[in-house]
Amino acid sequence: MAALRRIARERGGWWHAYVCPAHGVELDHGDLLGGVFPEDGARCAHGCRVDTEAVRGAWLVLSHQAWARHLRVLAHQGDRAEAVARLVEYADVYAGLATERHGEAQTWMLRGRLFHQALTDAIWAVNIGHAVNTLAVKDTEGLAAVLPLLDDLEQAALDARDVLTGQGHLASNYTAWLNAAGVATSRAAAAVRGREWDGAGQWLEGDHGLYAHLRVAVAEDGWEWEGSTYYHGFVLRAALLALRSTDPAAIPSDVVGVLAGMTDVLAVIATDGGILPALHDGPYARPPLALEWLELVALAQQLVPSAALDAVAVRARAELGERDDELDRELGGWFAGPPLPRRAAPGAVTVFPSAGYGVVRAAGIHALLDFGPHGGSHGHRDKLSLYLYGDTTLWQPDPGQVPYAHAEFRDLYASTEAHPAFRVDGAEQAECTGALLASDTASLSAEVTTAYEGVRAVRRVAAGDCYLVDLLTVTGREAHRVTAQLRPGTALDVQLQAAGPVRTTWYGDETLHGWHTHTAGVPVRPVTRPGPGPADDPQRMRTRVDFTADAERVTFASVYQAASAGPAVSEVRLDGEELTVELADGSTARFRTEG
Questions:
Q1: Tell me: the pLDDT tens digits for 183-193?
Q2: pTM, rounded to two decimals
Q3: Helix axis angle, 118-136 to 80-97, nearest 10°
Q4: Dist. CA 58–CA 38, nearest whole Å
């Protein structure tokens, strides 16, 4: 018997409250299209049942958003009667609930009407608008009853955008979605009325429109200003959704350049197996995120095709258990013209100087060095973190972030302690910005001088013939307790040797071997202890390693080699400022430290 489907008739809250207070995990969604909060409370993966007003409000957000997307799918699949009936029902719900801004929103929020946040209203409105538009271009019968909803949603987006831009926040990721909502709802209303859409001046080309937003929100290196993978994709997806039925040739050339640059960012940071590192705030892993990436790729490949994004789509489908191309069919023909030329594959080293990221690819290892700006409210205290990935294995990932309403775990995952960075005297890094020192076709180096007063840290990452080299040098005006941190996302073995480097083995779909040494004559204590793994489950323990020295100056040197690469590393030693790596075939290479 099919599950009963009904639309909830209550206002939603803030989805980030859908988190277990005891364990920090996102709660199980249950049947979002059933319209009824889970009986006996929302289920936690660790056995809890949670039932609070905040959690109920968060579930309502998820339910309403699931319904909006479901209506978009129904419209595409041609289930017209059901789609129209449900849209008319939503018009009635909205008219009864959302006549004014939500009174229960937190004071820092830009308040919405159906939800706590205007951003959430906008995301919901985008799918509602596109559902109506898909129906209306074929037949407008029955859709006149939805016009008040569309008009109210457009006005709500305009009102919220006026507040936001009046505060000087044109670059906010909210602005992207408010503009996307304005486009989707006004275009749908025009289609229902049988008119040509005339909203481009307001929502795309105006002083506060999408193009103006993209020009200030995206840096020259292609990154959205917050330096977060999630919010970067969040803004790009909003822009692509807003450009439905637009000919790429009609988009201003500088804006096309911005969109192409944003797409290139994702292509470069993605591993060959489709992993997108969860840099700064954003979920580490969750099915709705995989669906968002799948949607983004389906749209982006019609504008700026990239082989790297094909791999992202394959991985997202696998995470969702979906291996068909239904989403591609739904979003096919999104733009009114042909795509731009296919983008070239990334090289061995890519530097994003504005966002402060460097990517180094070395024989089965995908390394990412983080040295840039803090990233505003979505930043982490993670300067000079080094993230390590295989094609499909997250050996040492950025750990991501929990739903924001869990203050304790959110602070934990923003902390230096949680990242493969460095600490001084056991303290947290200050919110700060590092600087690129040098880069070439095989290496890059960056420094940070303001994470700790009187301390300079330099990290050099280089691609060897079949391995990766990591050289972290920390110098103070006086002796400090300096710690270099390993923060695995997978199982890790650590072995001390009677002589020579500490050895590590990192497991997963692929295996990684590590050799770790340090400045001669400086005692270093390698201490392993259990600690929270990535943010999708803070209760899942991983083996953390801290290499700690009391010194005025110390270099921590590591060499990493994927098990699939060869010849095998046979010896690693650090002599003064020079690291020597020898291979089993007798070949030798030397690398200088920086700073």
A1: 999 999 999 99
A2: 0.96
A3: 150
A4: 12
